[in-house]
Amino acid sequence: MKISFILNKKNVEVDVSPSMRLLDVVRDVLGLTGTKEGCGEGECGACTVLVNDEPYNSCLTPIINVANKEVMTIEGFRETKSYRIIADAFASQGGSQCGFCTPGMILATYAVLKKNPHPSEEEARLALSGNLCRCTGYQAIVDAVMLAAKKGIEL
Amino acid sequence: MINHFVPKNLKEALTILNKHDCYIMNGGTDLMVQKHVSTGLLPKFDKDVLYINNLKELDYIKKDEEGIHIGASTRYVEIENSPLIPNIYKRVIKEIASPNIRNMATISGNIANASPAGDTLVPLVLNDAEVVLTSANGERKMKVDEFVYGVRKIHREKNELISEIVLKPQELSYFYRKVGSRKAESITKVSFLGGVKIENKVIKDFRVSFGSVAIKTVRNREIENKYIGRNINELDINEVINDYAPLVTPITDQRSNKEYRHKVAMNLLKKFVMDIKEGGINE
């Protein structure tokens, strides 16, 4: 079935089953491997992408559910000014170690700051509660979110 | 051969359901896990699939004299942010899964999935919420409490779609606790919701529901009616516990064990009754 959506600000059309996971469409069909698969069942958030600016787990999203919507993966987001500020904050605070959760963490960080530019630490933790990290122990990530908030992500 | 149907509107969806026995795919957060095979492979279905998440006609929250109507494809995030939704539902939904999942998942899906650990079932049952079942032949309504009758068992006919949920706002004060292993992304071990209305120390309404401790959400109107009309000073904690103890019949599974679940359920009930006796619920 032909399904159109907007990926990283460009119109794309794929010819796949409507049941195919958005994750598999971006990685295998469109070749964008920045979006990671961790658990494959919606627990870890490594596969986070933005759908109409809201974070979704792409491993649980049948592709048809994003038909005609705007999908942003880390590859598209890295072209924005917001990305640079958030990525620098993660780098300076040690918020990324092995890096596997980082694309999801960065997109989740953007999503919370867009809704709430000055979150409390508690709010930041809640907003990232669907993104697991096995390296940092989270404090460095929360510090990165707070630093990015302080700098302002230039929306 | 499995068919994947993507209807353009509700009418088309109902026409398809009249001819085909389908899984209903909504937000996907349960079904995509249940039918997942492996990385790079399509989810495996053993019958046709009907996709309803994009139906704009089913994406709404509105209020009238009957109650608050939530369309089937309305997502948790929309419910959390709507001024029309009673706080008790927001309180329960905020503790479900993670923000990502709540951006995708629907309350109609939580009902249809009919898990004993389905978190929204607890307030839906306690507050007499209804599901609207629509087919090409018309529609009917049923209380959520009756609609879900067992583990993954619902009274949906093959040609029907849960098109809407109707919340019935109640004048109750609530005490809610979800018990899990961690704050976010936790599947409930035990949940408890008590609702009460007290005037001049007399109980005008009294309701209790438990989640994850039986094949379906526990609620018993006979026991509730026994306590309505009673003065809070004559409310005996042990009597209430003895009434509910036999109804709470949890199992041991990977998340918890039956002894722990029973104990916690009874402790939460005890706390609810103690709070009533000590002057009320303030949540």
Quote the beta fraction of chain A. Answer: 5-15%
The helix-and-strand class of chain A reads alpha+beta
> CATH architecture of the largest domain in chain B, please?
2-Layer Sandwich
Sketch the topology of chain A as an H/E string, one letter per element: EEHEEEHHHHH
Largest sheet of chain B: 5 strands, antiparallel
Which blocks of ≥5 consecutive residues of chain B have pLDDT under 50? none
How many helices of chain B in DSSP terms?
11
Number of domains of chain A: 2
CATH superfamily of the largest domain in chain A: Beta-grasp domain
Named CATH topology of the largest domain in chain B: Uridine Diphospho-n-acetylenolpyruvylglucosamine Reductase, domain 3
Task: Give the terminus-to-terminus CA distance of chain B.
Answer: 52 Å
How do the helices and strands line up, and which of them pair or pack?
The complex is a heterodimer of chains A (155) and B (283).
Chain A: E1 2-7, E2 10-15, H1 22-29, E3 48-51, E4 54-57, E5 70-72, H2 74-77, H3 81-93, H4 102-115, H5 121-127, H6 139-151
Parallel strand pairs in A: 1-5
Antiparallel strand pairs in A: 1-2, 3-4, 3-5
Chain B: E1 4-5, H1 10-19, E2 22-25, H2 31-34, E3 48-51, E4 61-64, E5 67-71, H3 76-81, H4 87-94, H5 99-104, H6 107-113, H7 121-126, E6 130-135, E7 138-143, H8 144-147, E8 148-150, E9 153-154, E10 161-167, E11 173-179, E12 190-199, E13 202-211, H9 221-227, H10 237-244, H11 258-277
Parallel strand pairs in B: 1-3, 2-3
Antiparallel strand pairs in B: 4-5, 5-10, 6-7, 6-10, 8-9, 11-12, 12-13
Main attributes of the structure:
heterodimer; A: 155 residues; alpha+beta; Ubiquitin-like (UB roll); DNA polymerase, domain 1; 2 domains; five-stranded mixed sheet; 6 helices; 38% helix; 15% strand; B: 283 residues; Uridine Diphospho-n-acetylenolpyruvylglucosamine Reductase, domain 3; Enolase-like, domain 1; five-stranded antiparallel sheet; three-stranded parallel sheet; 11 helices; 13 strands; 30% helix
